[in-house]
Amino acid sequence: MGIYVVGFVSALAAAITYFLYTRLFQKPTSLQHFSFMCISGAFHWIPFTIIAYATMLSEFPSSAIVFTISLACAYLLHGLILSILTCFFIRLLHGQKQNHFKTWLRNQLSLSCHLRFAKLLTGTEAFCVYLRLLGAKIGKHCSIRAINPVSNPELMAIGNGVHLGDFSRIITGFHYSNGYTCGKIEVQDNSVVGSQSIILPGSHVEKNVILGALSIAPMNSILHEGSMYIGSQTRVITKKPTSGLDERIEEMDMAYKKVVSNLSANLATTTMNAKARYFHRIGVSGKGYLKMYDKIDGIPMHKIFHPGKSYPILIRHSNSLSADDDARIDARGASLKILSDEPASNNALFDLTLKTGKAFYARTLADFASWFVCGLAAREELVKKFPHLREAVWNSLRNANSYAELHYYSNICRLLRFNDGQEMYVKFKLRPYDKSIGENTGMVKPIGILPPETGAIPRDENDKRPLLFLADDFKNRVSSPGGVHYVFQIQVRPVPDDEATRDVALDCTRPWDENDFPYIDVGEINITENLSKEESDMCEFNPYLKSHELDVIPATSNSQSASMDHGRSLIYEICQYVRNKRPLPESWRNLIEQSVVKVDLSCCPMAAAASLPKKQPQKVTLTRTWYQTFSALFIQPFLQTVLPHAVIGLSIYAPLCCIVYLKNANGFPLHWMLPIFWILSGVMAALACVIAKWILVGRRKVGETIPLWSIRIIMDSTWQAIRTLIGDYFMDMTSGSFLFMVWMKMMGASIDIMDDGAYIDSSMGSLLNPEMVKIEGGGCVGREALLFGHIYEGDEGGIVKFGEIKIGEDGFVGSRAVVMPGVHVENEGNLSALTLAMKGEIIRSR
């Protein structure tokens, strides 16, 4: 069915072409001619067209000029109509409910149109228009060369002044063992994607990035602004070394990054306005020590949780949202900073943020962001679907008499690495030393689906305690003999083998079963000294403090359970920097600026600092004049589609007349004549291609530079289209033969075809700049290898540079290898298959 539909769309385009021809030129319709046109459109390949013509029709073409013009115009019109029909059907199929067949059919329609017509538009603005009609977002002044047909074009977004090199691959979706996956690909302004490079679904290429030839942007990767990448997302050059990259941001996919960006902007704005924390704003702090028990049962030996060790600590108690009255029913928190046990060291080993209640109401950062911005009604609808979330919210609230008489839980999971190399997930708990104080102390009985939006239920009117009585009580207890005493506990479980089970284990909305994973007492905390209000306000608790022994579990997507801890660590730290008026690293600043929330950073010292120059609008590197744009939209596409078919038409006219005459006059069987015709017309087309090369392009010189939008590049692209069509017609079949090497020599290549001779099995790749190729005796070029005698590196003004490629005696370039200008493969040198030889590189013999 799908194969029929693809052929039918092309045949339909040919039928429309025929009826337009008969209407415009007032020609009578003929069933024979109509059938011929439909068959030609369905198969499209010119040799099939000639077979159909010789078989179905008996008349001679009127003249070579008329035949050539008719053939070229017919293919041009057919290509335009086919493109319009393809765009229509692809958009129509995209609008329907998707399934495997529709996805496959859209891809096949796009592939068919690309191979039959669109590929000849390479490098033109018309090709950008074609991609836009398919659904892609393409910016201004783009140079999109011979890329692949793009499946799911609506998932491709290209910025201004972007250059996609020859044979680069934009893969928005593909099939693999778990089914079909797809994701949006974005390439921002002024970026360059090198030849044969691959960009996979979900990748985000930021501004001014160079992705080198034969490189890959992996799925859901971010290629950071101003950097060069070669290989598999390996940065080799950073043009702005002071950008302060954060590995947490680099690990995030685009959707995750946007959630963190919006949350950071929201909370940073509130932090700047309030000049205080968003959550847990008012607190009370003390310091003391954590003493590990001399014997810890239930876990292997661990560097930090080692029997007998002692650590200085800071603790801060606070309410979650209530900043003005401790009597309000609210979640209560306990933040711990565990300091190094080394003498005279004030470095923190790790920070923990704990709260009342065994679970949290959001599994992922995306869930938290939705909860954060939606109203009470939407939250109530959510908890009706997931009742355990309601339980998590209400069980976190406490009607407290003392911070020291509550149980606190981390909810969030970390990764423990033990001395023997074993890894386990871990959660933490802080409980009062007095065992008679149960977990349910101060628990609130639910009075509705959810508490009020602020979580602040007013105090009883008969309650006469001071507004901050919990803080006062904690200070008094710390000042009393013995201070405040807690037991520090951990809960561990093995790391599951499969990803789905790991995600369930990391789900902070569901506590672990204490029968399967009981809490283990590891030490005691004693708080003996109060901190002043100023000291307490300046306390910073960074959830991202980590070590090899106690690590944060990374997340790449906001749909992963680990994103709650991974993402919040970045958000907390950004807000701390803003609150304490510390300069923001550039990567954090860029993250906030990408938010849909507009943040005014003018009140922040980092924004007003004289050392930070004001950002100027980025100039588009590949800017064209209006007449260059007109040429790229109309003149260049016309040349690249009409001239190649005109060359083919001239080449096949005489042989076609000959076989039609022999068939009519002498009754010679066509099956004997057609192969001879094909070879003869193919050789004549190859000679015509040589003539076109010297007329349109001439001979390039080593070291020559040419602007990308110049007429000389237009002529070069036109000749490349001629060579491509003639290759498809016949000459691709001759690769590896003596005939093919003679053809290359006639177009300017220097090849030793005598004595030992050379072997060239790459028809398209070795003819990109034939005069830049020099191959000595015994030299070998493998199948689909690319010999680039030119390079574009994103220079100001869009300059194309040329350089010679030399392959010495018995030198070898493997299949699908990419060779850049200036490369010298020495005698007996070996460039392996699928390998990149950088500009000016020397490949030596072993």
Brief rundown of the structure:
With 846 residues, the protein is an alpha/beta fold.
Question: What is the element layout, followed by pairings?
Answer:
Elements: H1 2-24, H2 31-43, H3 46-56, H4 64-95, H5 100-116, H6 125-134, E1 137-138, E2 143-144, E3 156-158, E4 163-164, E5 169-170, E6 173-176, E7 179-182, E8 185-187, E9 192-193, E10 198-199, E11 204-205, E12 210-211, E13 216-217, E14 222-223, E15 227-230, E16 234-238, H7 247-251, H8 254-274, E17 283-292, E18 310-319, E19 330-339, E20 348-355, H9 365-373, H10 376-385, H11 387-396, E21 397-398, E22 408-409, E23 414-417, E24 423-432, H12 469-479, E25 484-494, H13 499-505, E26 519-530, H14 533-538, E27 550-551, H15 563-579, H16 586-593, H17 605-608, H18 626-665, H19 670-696, E28 705-707, H20 711-729, H21 738-746, E29 750-751, E30 759-760, E31 773-775, E32 780-781, E33 786-787, E34 790-792, E35 799-802, E36 805-807, E37 812-813, E38 818-819, E39 824-825, E40 830-831, E41 836-837, E42 842-843
Parallel strand pairs: 1-3, 2-4, 3-8, 4-9, 5-10, 8-11, 9-12, 10-13, 11-14, 12-15, 29-31, 30-32, 31-36, 32-37, 33-38, 36-39, 37-40, 38-41, 39-42
Antiparallel strand pairs: 6-7, 15-16, 17-18, 17-26, 18-19, 19-20, 19-21, 22-24, 23-24, 23-27, 24-25, 25-26, 28-35, 34-35
Q: How would you describe what is shown here?
A:
The protein has about 850 residues and is α/β, with parallel strands linked by helices. It folds into four domains: about 155-240, Hexapeptide repeat proteins (UDP N-Acetylglucosamine Acyltransferase, domain 1, 3 Solenoid); about 245-275 and about 555-610, no CATH class; about 280-555, Catalase core domain (Catalase HpII,  Chain A, domain 1), CATH 2.40.180; about 625-845, no CATH class. Helices cover about 35% and strands about 20% of the residues. The chain is built from 21 helices and 42 strands. The strands form nine sheets. Strands 17, 18, 19, 20, 21, 22, 23, 24, 25, 26 and 27 form an eleven-stranded antiparallel sheet that branches. A six-stranded mixed sheet has the order 2-4-9-12-15-16. A five-stranded parallel sheet has the order 1-3-8-11-14, with helices on one face. Strand 19 and strand 20 (about 350-355) form a beta hairpin. The protein is elongated, with a radius of gyration of 35 Å. Mean pLDDT is about 85; it is low at about 235-245 and about 600-615.
